[in-house]
Amino acid sequence: MFSKGIKRRSIGSQLILLFTLATALLLACGLGVFYAIVVRHAFAEDNAFLADKISALSADLHESGPNAFAEELKGQHAGEHAAYWIRILDPQGRTYAETPGMDRLLPPDIFQAAPASSKALAGTQQSALTLPGQKDYRMGGKLFSLVATTQGSGGQPYTLQVAQDRSADERVERNFALLFVVVLSGGIVASAFIAIRVTSRGLQPLTDMTHLLARIGPSHMKERLAPADWPRELQPLANAFDHM
């Protein structure tokens, strides 16, 4: 009694739904893995460049001394776009020299405490996702990766604070995420369209059989379905009907 009120879903709609869901799942998994690999590689590559930059700066500070290092920093122009922002703190923790404009954008106190030696950074593998003491900081619509390290020069310990501008990488990540959504949405629509066409074509023999059976009546009792003319899945039905 209750089964009469249940509306059965058609085979075609179930096939279309399952095909579309399967395609969406495969696309999401494939694009998700690709997205994770690209983002992971981008961050690891940035960290490798940052570690190399800090190692080079530490070596320069140790060999040339803070005065030559400070003169080089003063040669940069304020407001000039820089991929790296650099600051030197003297043994008392006061700013000795810095990239022009860095005090307004990246004050010294936002950096984490510097490790005891720069050797920890020098030994960092290029595939690492984080560096010792690394910190992400957002300011003025930009994303920075901050690292501090200690380097001796002239028998005195100096602190190097280095900030890497990663705003461009963040924009690429957002654009990639948008592309992910667009491709996934387009793939789902395309898979649904293909599923509709394929299902309609695949179920056409069943529709043809239905029309043939509808012609059979008291005046056409000799009609036969000819099992050999139907797809393999419908041949048992055709045989059963002809025997009946």
Question: What labels describe this entry?
Answer:
single chain, 244 residues, alpha+beta, 5-stranded antiparallel β-sheet, 6 helices, 5 strands
- Total helix count? 6
> Averaging pLDDT over every residue, what do you get?
78
In N-to-C order, the SSE pattern is: HEEHHEEEHHH
Main β-sheet: number of strands, strand sense, barrel status? 5 strands, antiparallel
Strand content: 15-25%
Structural category is alpha+beta
Strand order of the largest sheet: 2-1-5-4-3
Please compute the radius of gyration using only Cα atoms: 35 Å
Q: Give the % helix.
A: 40-55%
DSSP E strands, number: 5
Q: How far is the N terminus from the C terminus? A: 29 Å
Q: Which stretches are poorly predicted, pLDDT < 50 over at least 5 residues? A: 122-127
Global geometry: rod-shaped
If you had to describe this structure to a student in words, what would you say it looks like?
The chain contains six helices and five strands; from the N terminus they run H-E-E-H-H-E-E-E-H-H-H. It has 244 residues and is of the alpha+beta class. It has a five-stranded antiparallel beta sheet with strand order 2-1-5-4-3. Residues 122-127 have low confidence and may be disordered.
